[in-house]
Amino acid sequence: MNATDVDPLSLAIAPPPDETPAERAAREFAEAEALRISNEIDEQIRKERENEKKKKRPVKLLLLGQSESGKTATLKNFQLTYAKREWIAERNNWRAVIFLNLVRNVNYILDILNREMAAASLPSPEYIGSSDESSDDINSSKPRLKFKEKHRLLKLRLGPLRRIQTDLERRFGATAIEPQSTTVTTAAPFGSEGPESSRRTLNEFSINSRNGWKSAFEKLRAMRAAARAEGNDNALRKLQETDDEIADVIAGCRDDMNAIWEDSTVREMLSRGKTRIEDSAGFFLNDVERIAVSNYEPTDDDVIRARLRTLGVQEYKFIFEHGRTAGQEWRLYDVGGARSSRAAWWPYFDDVNAIIFLAPISCFDEKLAEDRRVNRLEDSFLLWRSVCDCKLLSRTQLILFLNKCDLLQAKLQRGVRIRDSVPSFGDRRNDISTATRYFQQHFKEILRQSSPVQRPFFVHLTSVIDTRSTAVTLGAVEESILRDHLRRADLM
Ligand SMILES: Nc1nc2c(ncn2[C@@H]2O[C@H](COP(=O)(O)OP(=O)(O)OP(=O)(O)O)[C@@H](O)[C@H]2O)c(=O)[nH]1
Ligand SMILES: [Mg+2]
């Protein structure tokens, strides 16, 4: 061998030339041991890195439940509690939605007023009151309503709000229109039937993430930015003018809006109908004084109470600013809850950390807007069963919000009896604690029947328009999801 062939490193670690067999065995053992320990350390480091990565993976949370169950309101509470900067930046965008909600309240009353005034102008025996099943049924056995000149004037002066409603609805597109019918006849067009059935029904409703409020706000922001970038002062002014004009028209109608809502004949007319407008989504008539001003700025509560339905599945990414998971990315998926929208949920079941399922329990005597034959509470139970039965979700943490407890309490206090709509409730006490216990038991029983493997489950009684108590509930939700998230990271 010539000198250049000698590898100095091999030479340095080569065994001594006079090594005895015993020394050799001891050396080889020590080397093997050192290698084993080194490999173990490498493996530990690799695992720790992997776990760190897993822990940093976004937490995925899906909000499910029927339409108007409070999913979007819950999402807003998350944003208000954990991503306040973003919330504040977005708060003013809700102004137009709140205006739309308010003018809809007024136009709804005007519609009934029109109908009833027309009916009342007929000769006495023919006036039997309107008995339109689909809308408010004014009871004909009650004394005749007496409309006066002031009602005609109110109708006239509030007329411009029709155009405002049309303008705002055009701005928000399909998301501003509540569905009145559907061809979907099952509560869960996914579940055990799997993605095939989802695909079949998807043609009725395609996933379009550009449809939500976020997209509507972004469109507006983009239009403003484009006008600004182009130096198109005209376009910018027009956009601003439209907003200002809407606020001015609404402010101009302030006294008449108050007058129509305060009018005793109108109140009597509304109370004879089936729907209580004050319990409906996006009701703002008690806040006219504050909202119908040209420089109105929404409060946190206004934004939570504003109603704009969700279409498709909307993804919201938040880096939490507070809480135990500060700095952690959360992905919240807010879905459209109407029956025709539910087929779009399926693809989001995969790889989700937890589901918040919202069941509005005040709705025990109400029907679905999209299918007037279906009781809302029954629909919630059917939907819950399908979610619990879904194999893809068999290990997913389920968090049940029995929501709208405030409305339930008010309804029971008004004397509405649960057993008239839910016969199995029987002769139990018609109070909030008995009712929530009863409904909760039913949901738990369904979960038990549908969970061969025990899974993390939590239930909360909520009124998600109450931001303070909801922040406390969300703290508990964050904690339980985080614990599960870390446990999975360590186990996997
Ligand atoms: N009083 C009361 N109102 C609530 C409660 N939760 C939600 N709301 C209101 O009910 C309306 C409907 O709530 P959303 O959050 O829009 O319902 P959703 O489940 O997102 O409905 P979709 O988008 O159609 O699926 C909104 O105006 C909410 O402010 C509650 O606990 N109490
Ligand atoms: Mg929604």
What report would you give on this structure?
There is one protein chain. The chain is of the alpha/beta class. 50% of the residues lie in helices and 8% in strands. It has helices spanning 8-13, 21-56, 71-82, 84-91, 95-120, 149-157, 160-172, 195-202, 213-229, 233-252, 254-262, 264-271, 288-291, 300-305, 376-389, 405-413, 432-449, 467-491; strands at residues 59-65, 313-319, 329-335, 354-360, 397-403, 457-461. Mean pLDDT is 86; it is low at 131-137 and 192-211. Bound molecules: guanosine-5'-triphosphate (GTP) and magnesium ion. Magnesium ion (MG) binds at residues 71-72, 309-310, 334. One of its GO terms (molecular function) is metal ion binding.
Highlighted features:
6 strands; 18 helices; 50% helix; binds magnesium ion; alpha/beta; 8% strand; 492 residues; binds guanosine-5'-triphosphate; 6-stranded mixed β-sheet
Summarize the SSE layout with pairings.
Blueprint: H1 8-13, H2 21-56, E1 59-65, H3 71-82, H4 84-91, H5 95-120, H6 149-157, H7 160-172, H8 195-202, H9 213-229, H10 233-252, H11 254-262, H12 264-271, H13 288-291, H14 300-305, E2 313-319, E3 329-335, E4 354-360, H15 376-389, E5 397-403, H16 405-413, H17 432-449, E6 457-461, H18 467-491
Parallel strand pairs: 1-3, 1-4, 4-5, 5-6
Antiparallel strand pairs: 2-3
Helix pairs in contact: 2-18, 3-4, 3-18, 5-7, 9-10, 15-17
The chain binds guanosine-5'-triphosphate and magnesium ion.
The site of guanosine-5'-triphosphate has 25 residues, from α3, α14 and α16.
